Amino acid sequence: MSNPAPFNPPVRSLMGPGPSNCAPSVLQSLSKPMLGHLDPEFVRMMEEIKSMQRAVMQTKNLMTFPVSGTGSAGMEFCLVNLLEPGDEVIIGVNGVFGGRMCDLAERCGAKVTKVSSDWGRIIEPQQIADALKQTPKPKLVAVVHAETSTGALTPVEEVSKLVREAGALFLIDTVTSLAGCPVKIDEWGVDAVYSGTQKCLSCPPGLAPVSLSERALKVATSRRTKVQSWYLDVNLLAGYWGEERVYHHTAPISMNYALHEALRLVLEEGLEARFARHRENHLALKAALDVMKLKIMSQEGHQLWQLNAVQVPEGVDEAGVRKQLLTQYGIEVGAGLGPMKGKIWRVGLMGATSTRDNVVKFVQAFGDILNAGGYTCDTKAAVAAAK
Amino acid sequence: MSNPAPFNPPVRSLMGPGPSNCAPSVLQSLSKPMLGHLDPEFVRMMEEIKSMQRAVMQTKNLMTFPVSGTGSAGMEFCLVNLLEPGDEVIIGVNGVFGGRMCDLAERCGAKVTKVSSDWGRIIEPQQIADALKQTPKPKLVAVVHAETSTGALTPVEEVSKLVREAGALFLIDTVTSLAGCPVKIDEWGVDAVYSGTQKCLSCPPGLAPVSLSERALKVATSRRTKVQSWYLDVNLLAGYWGEERVYHHTAPISMNYALHEALRLVLEEGLEARFARHRENHLALKAALDVMKLKIMSQEGHQLWQLNAVQVPEGVDEAGVRKQLLTQYGIEVGAGLGPMKGKIWRVGLMGATSTRDNVVKFVQAFGDILNAGGYTCDTKAAVAAAK
User: Fold this and answer.
1) CA of A193 to nearest chain B CA: how many angstroms apart?
2) Structure confidence by residue, pLDDT tens digits, B195-212
3) Complex ipTM more than 0.95, yes or no
4) DSSP one-letter code for A303
5) Whole-model pTM?
6) How many domains does chain A have?
7) What stretch of H or E contains B92?
8) Looking at the domain assignment, is residue B225 inside a domain?
9) What are the CA-CA distances from residue B56 to residues A45, A264, B185, B262 (Å)?
10) Is A124 a member of any domain?
11) Domain range for residue A326?
């Protein structure tokens, strides 16, 4: 075998479901010199990450840190630490990620009650209220805040009240919501939360910011059985991310540099300004889609700003359009997953990718491709609407 | 809270148990533009990683790829996929990492037979032979090839024959050995192997190169029970790293860039040349230690080239020496773990860190610090011996 050449990735506009584009200073931070995972300077930086992550998650939870894996490792972290065999859980399923939580909870030996909505719709608080009548004393209730597979934003604050009244722990998936729209862990009474770095934080994938409330932590530290994962056991991780600094595993040093810089940029912009930017660019895209007579498939009134699931019109080649966007315009958008395959394009406007320039660039390219493929729309008017 | 300043890590000579220093081109690769995890260019690069990883592991195993976590996630990947509740396993324990495997295997519900050696000593093949008499039909036998906590290299090839005869699967930990000394997965008849990126591969921590033989893969794909980890389930991971490219989790893109470049550099240097370099620099360090009347604690004849466990002489302040090395000379060495705490310094010569210049620089600094602290040794002669 001859040795491959150095890899030089093309420059893309990453307008899919993540990863999003990273700010230049985030990419540059990755190249900084390596440090040991117990180096006093690295430890100092870990404290800054924890503190900034708390600010972005709007929580005072001490157990707030990035798990050394991608968002799904964050999901697994929450479930394996909180669940034991025989526990009853209620999980909202309105897309891929609710389904994944059910799979994972079952691997923990839990008895899962699924609360399902059609893909694209939210989990209605009333559905959780009904489920709580059937399973009045669950240990945990979990919902996906922002479903990346459909672009629907479930009103978790309303669900939280019901869960509290039932005395259960409340877990939410904020992989796509965090740093793109309000996520208020303490105000909403959330006990466990996980996210990913590669969405609205605009950091490369590889870490999963998580947070556990004191109540959740108490459950995790007073289990009957050992956590089934060693890598994700919070009882062990607390020794490294806490004050003792006991070696557990070797933290991904460079990825933590990147998260530090990405969190810094979020706070520098300010949460409210960042949310407003995400909202405005979503509205600009939506205005253009209206002109093009294209629809967002997720429930009106609950559409995500950072992920737009655009319905593929009758007769249009979904994969062909995606391929042309990528190869001719350097724009990546996402395909539909599961039952949405071939039915939607997922257009992400996350973090650094959420700019008016990107919206306009996308609308122009998208309109041109659709018209060339036989779907007639007024690209010029759509671009004007987006500006 | 005021926003922290950008983080600028100091430049260190990383001569501990890992992470090691990275080559400049590896660090630069991390800053390259982000790509989607299903981008055709990224997928092409994944194939190159798999192919290069096979070359470095000296295997033809198709299921050879990097797990999206650090070395310990690689350990967990192997054990959760191969073990089911009630399975019998034999694990060699001669340091921290054998102990960690026992903990993990127990979390999988396995019945663990520990084969223990004193820390610093190897697992003797005869010990495995004896254990096989007590537990004649184990599902799996596992040993640590290179114990990072003690610097001992167990002769796994000899163990392998015994394991084969017993019809068990053979698992080895090559976190510290891979790319620093011979690791011959196919020739040695190893069924499952995991490693880390931050040791002799000189890539940042964050990925765990793993490989499963066809035999091991068959065990993992024909289980009675689901794998207890979703994140590490090879039945799901195979869909992404195999030919289907089904979305599982979002791969850590930048970390894969770095691994691609690190593997490239290993193959460019050549395995034999790389091993020789590690050996020579170890011998240079050992010659200097001899002059200084300092001993390596691991078993003579089985001492690792890449990690040297130097015994702390009577009356010398172990932590104080380490701190001075770091703060005055920018040299990181490791402390002893568990029962070795305060008794050894772990001096790593891994990957890009393994240079004669680093050996000399370390010997000079170390000798100066020891002499200032009351341990008399001939630093000048030691440096001469190292050159």
Assistant:
1) 17
2) 999 999 999 999 999 999
3) yes
4) B
5) 0.98
6) 2
7) strand B88-93
8) yes
9) 34, 38, 10, 11
10) yes
11) 270-386
